[in-house]
Amino acid sequence: MKDDWKENWLVIVNPNAGAGKCWLDWPKVEILLDSYGFKYHREFTLKKLHAIVLARKFINNGYRKIIVVGGDGTMNEVINGIFGQKRFETSEVILGMIPVGTGNDWGRMFNISNNYEEAIRTILTSKTFIQDAGKVVFQNRERTHHRYFVNIAGLGFDAMVVKKTNRLKDNGKSNPLIYKYNILTSLFQFKSPRATIEVDGKAVTNNVFSVSVGICKYNGGGMMPLPDANPDDGLFDLTVIKKIARWDVIRSMKRLYDGSIVRHPKVETYQGKNIKISSNSTIFLETDGESLGHTPMVFEIIPRSICVLSAKETA
Predict the structure, then answer these.
(1) At 79, is the secondary structure helix, strand, or coil?
(2) Comparison of pLDDT for 189 and 9, the residue scoring more
(3) Measured between alpha carbons, how far is residue 266 from residues 27, 71, 171, 239 in Å?
(4) pLDDT in tens, 204-242
(5) 177-181: long-range contacts (C-beta < 8 A, 24 or more apart)?
(6) CATH code for 133-302?
(7) Among residues 61, 109, 119, which one has the least CA distance to residue 306?
């Protein structure tokens, strides 16, 4: 390890992560960072999207090493701050994470432990990995928006479940069973819309239950909709679950966790750099567990653009 590795860190803490768990546990994390000799400036997020502002501001002021203390949503905001700053190439900013969220699916891809001390030791190894990022352009309230992401974007049923889960999180209700509960309740509300999915210029049209567009493998607290995803191959992986019976969704839950869902007869998979999705009725979107807008939407891969600290040699 270089002598200056522990110097000049920006630590962005989301006290609301994990339904307030981060606020309670931050003193433990702070003691660990201090005991390992980190020299850092700490900022708490004050509201939703504040981490975007903080990351952009402090990178423009010269910080190039950031530790995110929070969940996947906090990491997503920091990523958007990195793409919003003008001082450095995005891959020149180094990102470490201490997971304190409910899903922590991005960290799972890189073997980042939920144990705070183990996560800090991962940062100390200075083992970097340059991963791809994605950009999605979407609609919301008759306006066009965009968002960057580093894990998975979910459309359709996935987005409905995430929206319900986030509402409960905002009300201080969070545990690993909430996501599963919302899967079951949403099954009786969701109707599979007809969508056209265009991958690198080739289009298919189907009634779709859900679509996963991603760079990494995991979402939903350990589900694996994209088991073959490689985070630095310059390609999105897509898993499209076509219209499917409710009982078949319930029966296939195990397959969502072990990755074998891609072999289900109602599932199609694709890879590509540019994806367009349109629909005859509104299909909603979430990225990295954050509820956004709806169709039509366009995805673009940004190869090897984010530098992260990993707990394994390759992802």
Answers:
(1) helix
(2) 9
(3) 48, 32, 36, 10
(4) 999 999 999 999 999 988 999 999 999 999 999 999 999
(5) 178/102, 179/102, 179/103, 179/220, 179/221
(6) 2.60.200.40
(7) 109
Q: Is residue 139's pLDDT more than 60?
A: yes
Residue with the two structure tokens 């339904």: 19
At position 167, the amino acid (one-letter code) is: R
* Phi, psi (rounded to 5 degrees) for 48: -60, 140
Element containing residue 11 per DSSP (H, E): strand 9-13
Structure tokens belonging to residue 97: 């994470």
Q: Please indicate whether the domains covering 9-126 and 133-302 agree at the CATH topology level.
A: no
Class of domain 9-126: alpha beta
- Chain mean pLDDT for the chain: 93
Q: What is the pLDDT of residue 213?
A: 98
CA atoms within 13 A on the CB side of 178: 19
More confident residue, 43 or 169: 43
Q: Are 32 and 40 in contact (CB under 8 A)?
A: no
- For residue 175, the model assigns a pLDDT of 59
* CA–CA gap between residue 296 and residue 143 (Å, rounded): 11
Lowest-confidence range among 2-16, 59-73, 86-100, 160-174?
160-174
Note the pTM of the prediction, 2 decimals: 0.92
Residue type present at position 126: S
In the 8-state DSSP scheme, what is residue 286?
Answer: E
CA angle 154, 185, 241 (to 5 degrees): 35
Strand, coil or helix: 131: strand
User: What are the structure tokens assigned to 293, written together?
Assistant: 């807008």
Closest CA to 298 of 122, 145, 84: 145
* DSSP class of 64: -
* Rounded (10°) CA dihedral 211, 309, 111, 167: -50
Boundaries of every domain in the chain: 9-126, 133-302
